[in-house]
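The instructor's notes for this session suggest beginning with a concrete chain rather than abstract definitions. Hand out the sequence below and ask the class to guess, before any prediction is shown, which regions might be ordered.
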Amino acid sequence: MQDFGRHCLDIDYAAEEARISARIRELLAGQLRRRGLVVAISGGIDSSVCAALAVRAVGAARVFCLILPERDSDTDSAARAQLLVEHLGVRVEAVDIAPTLDAIGCYTARDDAVRQAIPGYASDWKMKLVIVGGLQGAINRFRVVAEAPDGSRHEADLGLNEYLAVVAATNYKQRIRKTIEYFHADRLNYAVVGTPNRLEYDQGFFVKNGDGAADLKPIAHLYKTQVYAMARHLGLPARLCEAQPTTDTYSLEQGQDEFYFALPYGDMDLALWALNHDIPAEHLAAALDITPERAQAVYNDIANKRRTTQYLHLRPLLVEPG
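After discussion, reveal the predicted structure:
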């Protein structure tokens, strides 16, 4: 395909902004029957764009934002979120969810699981999970990377039970945040905005009944590259437009590509677009300057994640159709 390249992701951002805003207003007045919108903002690009689009759709007076940090949050995330609030002129409430997470055992359960792989690990260490193997033709597996207070690094493979325990514990974070979002939505008669972009939504990069729960998801059709471009179109502060995507879940700095995705987001966007449009792997390889074998491995990884995360997209299943 001769004209295949990054330009395939180009769209008319003014027209798209108008279309999204109109759809938000239509949903609020129609199916949702709510007066405004609740948006939890992390200082990342996705929640920032969602908040800005919410303001464009219904006005700042009908948008309520939440900043919900915890013990492992990057301190700069809350600062960027506050910058967004000041830029948009919306109401905001900040709630530190660490005491709640501590009380229900989030940090203890995670630390106990990590110690199974790294016996010396303690609560004052930092850690993250990384994924390895899949792009080398092997089965994906997770490793834990930990940093002691003296700066020394330690790595080990996580067993399945330990991996599941770490993920289950950290999923508490997204579910507690969503509980707070719906408290405010209920008291205000507002709808909750979900913030996943197309890459995250397609690949199941969200927590069921956590950040995956929402009343509407206004950017789930936009690739991450397009979300960044939309942020610039909306005139968001440069500090927000330049923020790199992270999980903001673990205490060690972590990019989404090392935890979940096969490539950096710009390349991953193009790979997903190419697969969705039946572009052969060799054309993707040429566009990304990688081998055809690796391009095919990326396609395989996308397909595998679609299969394994299908459960996350399911509605509750009924014995009889409703």
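Then share the key points. The domain at 6-102+166-312 is CATH 3.40.50.620 (Rossmann fold). Strands lie at 37-40, 63-67, 91-94, 126-132, 141-147, 153-157, 191-192.
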